Hints:
Helix content is 6%, strand content 45%. It is mainly β. It has a single domain, classed as Jelly Rolls (Sandwich), CATH 2.60.120.10.
Amino acid sequence: MNYQLLDFPIHGDHNGNLIALEKGKDFPFDIRRVYYIWGTKSDIIRGKHAHKNLEQVIVCVSGSCDFVLNNGTVKETVHLDNPSKGLYVKHNIWREFTNFSKDCVLMVLASEYYSESDYIRNYDEFLKESRG
Ligand code: TYD
């Protein structure tokens, strides 16, 4: 499926841990937008969309949650609970995310500016496009 789990190098010492993400280094695209999500109740299902072109790397910087990724044929669940991992989701993947811990904070690094026209929010339309 069109996703990967990236392992970011940690600069760890007695002060704690630090991860730096720089354009062209340890990162698959030029970042145009960053947003973050927190305070979502455990049983809420967010997402429920795919993107036509956008690529994203999702980092669970605190707590945990589950991402259900679906390419129209196969569904896979990825549990995120480690700030040194980045879930790299490419285009044409339907994503739903849920099971948020109380302290869950998701930071999303995106390859494009926000554009509603890049979203596919209708599941039937997604299936039609993915089976193309
Ligand atoms: P949405 O992408 O539907 O959230 P999620 O998939 O996490 O449930 O976005 C929620 C709202 O925030 C929607 O009204 C669009 C707005 N929004 C922006 O204005 N800019 C952004 O970069 C994002 C991601 C969302």
